[in-house]
Amino acid sequence: MVIIESAPNESEDNTSTENNVVESSVKSAEETNNDGFETASEGDVDREEEEVEPIPAPPQSNEESQQKALTEASDAKTEGNKLFGSGQYADALLQYELALQVAANMPATIEIRSICHANRAACFSNLGRYEETVKECDRALELNPAYMKALIRRAEAREKLEHFEEAVIDMKKIVELDPSNNQARRSIVRLEPLAAEKREKMKEEMLGKLKEMGNSVLGRFGMSIDNFKAVKDPTTGSYSLSFQK
């Protein structure tokens, strides 16, 4: 009896080979992971984004700060001028005040501050508030003693307030700074008699008050101020008192 040996099953051999390859691949992947390489899922665990701190802007230099303040003050002054030109004096005052606050106490802003004070004086003058006009001119002249417009405005406001003597002083200062200013010269000629008249009036008022006070005291002794006569010395201009019954 002849026994015929069958050939090996090729399909079984192929299946075995494929299983070996898959097993080898899985094993290789596990070994790779165990060697320290992250899988996609591992890479998503406990990863935080790094926060980037903002870089602070460099501090402004003193010169840059002053230039910025000067620009802002100039803008506010320009807006005030527009409002003044349209007759909105109260609103213009606010803009000039804003400019003064922005430019406060800096040497580089002395000029614009003196201008804003003088412009505020002009606003107050147009509003008929002459006391405030004088005060604003005072502040302008503290910053710039030769500021002609401030001197003129203060002199005009002082005249409105009937402070004639002070107005004459301002006008004389104007002539000193500008000898060709004939208007100031004419104002001096016009104001000096008014100043002298007011001085005499004030003197009479003062003498009247002193007389009342004297009579209240002398009346206790049966006398009055009329018992005393004031005699003016023509040489010195001083007065002496003589008693008369």
Number of helices: 9
Which stretches are low in confidence, meaning pLDDT under 50 for 5 or more residues running? 1-49
Termini separation: 193 Å
**Major beta sheet, strand line-up:** 1-2
Helix percentage: 55-70%
Strand content: under 5%
Number of strands: 2
Order of helices and strands: HHHHHHHHHEE
Radius of gyration: 49 Å
Largest sheet: 2 strands, antiparallel
Rounded average pLDDT:
78
Shape: elongated
SSE-based structural type: mainly alpha
Pfam family, one: TPR_8
Biased composition (Polar residues): 60-69
Keywords: Coiled coil, TPR repeat
Organism: Papaver nudicaule (Iceland poppy)
Walkthrough of the structure:
- This protein is mainly alpha-helical and 245 residues long.
- The protein has helices spanning 10-34, 40-43, 62-85, 89-102, 110-126, 130-143, 148-160, 164-177, 182-218, and strands spanning 228-232, 239-243.
- Strand 1 (228-232) and strand 2 (239-243) form a beta hairpin.
- Helix 3 runs antiparallel to helix 4 (89-102), helix 5 packs parallel to helix 7 and helix 8 (164-177) packs antiparallel against helix 9.
- The protein starts with 9 loop residues before the first helix and ends with a strand.
- The model is unreliable at 1-49 (pLDDT under 50).
- Residues 41-53 have a biased composition (Acidic residues).
- Residues 1-79 are annotated as: Disordered.
- Pfam families: TPR_8.
